[in-house]
Amino acid sequence: MAMKYSKKTLALAVIATFLLSGCSAAKEPANSVSGGSEKPAVKITMQQAAVRADSMLDVTFGAIKPEVHWTHGATTKGSCDLSRRRVVMTIISKERLGSFLGLVQRFWEKSGYQIKSVDKDEKFPAIYAQSPDGFGIDLTVGAESQVFFEVATPCVKSSSVADPTTPPNGPAYKYPIPRPNFRSDFWSATSPISSASPTASDSER
Description:
Blueprint: H1 2-27, H2 46-63, E1 70-72, E2 76-77, E3 82-88, H3 94-110, E4 114-119, E5 126-130, E6 136-141, E7 147-152
Antiparallel strand pairs: 1-3, 2-3, 3-7, 4-5, 5-6, 6-7
């Protein structure tokens, strides 16, 4: 009788362990790392993703009129993703900053990007968006209203990554990048422009 009870207990323990492990696996995010391996979400290489990121930045800066001076920021690589960055070197006055943000946000919306969130902080606002193919793109404002752009790729196939081929339209600064030092008759002006502020999209989270 004791033997039967032990076998039954063992069987129940095995079933319970199986159910618990199954529940744990079901709760694990689809993009989580398991066993130290990461599967590419997009079947392209890091270099191809870097070119795509550069293109997104190129068209964004091309949409900014009057143009602003910019320089390349650092490229950083993760285990299966990377980020490209650009830093605006034009002095953008606090009176014109809202217009700048609004211009970029409207362009991203027209380009089919989903606006994930808009931070309306008075000193350090930001806009976070995502392209239809899963590339994150954001604009953040730092000290002295310096504007930073970043494109973060989805998980892709590991490869070597070359430097960006688009030359900056000013000095190619190395780290540390200085504060904005180019004046613009438009962006550096201290008179405000109407309809300046970016608005949160319906998709804001």
